[in-house]
């Protein structure tokens, strides 16, 4: 099995897209502002972070939200990564690009998610759906 610790995530310039060096067979399943996510197994993925300070913040948020039906299970973290539950499906952004709209049912689920996250004291909720 390949070792995900050989995967690196960098940025060429301050505002440029992330650059991923993946010498493993783990498929890239997404990347964003803070890092890139790779599928490890059918039920686990790893997020490799650009900055270690972001690992700490995301780990704290994941642990705080454990038990919520929409929060992936947290398994492990290290200096630049978090291993979490892999949930198959599109991101909200990809879903909207593909569908162009969302149903009333999905809208209500998003409202309920936001309420629950507010109740737990989450901030910057706009980043949760990007």
Low-pLDDT runs: 126-130
Radius of gyration: 15 Å
- Outline type: globular
Q: Report the major sheet.
A: 5 strands, antiparallel
The ordered string of helix (H) and strand (E) elements is: EEEEEHEEHH
In percent, how much strand structure appears in the residues? Answer: 15-25%
Question: Would you tell me the structural class of the helices and strands?
Answer: alpha+beta
Measured as a percent range, the helix fraction is 25-40%
What is the strand arrangement across the widest sheet?
Answer: 3-4-5-7-6
Mean pLDDT: 88
- End-to-end Cα distance, whole Å, is 31 Å
**How many individual β-strands?**
7
Count of DSSP-assigned helices = 3
How are the secondary structure elements laid out?
Blueprint: E1 8-11, E2 18-21, E3 28-31, E4 35-39, E5 44-49, H1 52-64, E6 74-77, E7 81-85, H2 92-99, H3 104-119
Antiparallel strand pairs: 1-2, 3-4, 4-5, 5-7, 6-7
Describe the structure.
The protein has helices spanning 52-64, 92-99, 104-119; strands at 8-11, 18-21, 28-31, 35-39, 44-49, 74-77, 81-85. Strands 3-4-5-7-6 form a five-stranded antiparallel β-sheet, covered by helices on one side. A two-stranded antiparallel ribbon has the order 1-2. The longest helix is centred in the C-terminal third of the chain and has 16 residues, at 104-119. With 130 residues, the protein is an alpha+beta fold. The chain starts with 7 loop residues before the first strand and ends in an 11-residue tail after the last helix.
Question: Can you give me a brief rundown of this structure?
Answer:
The protein has 130 residues and is an alpha+beta fold.
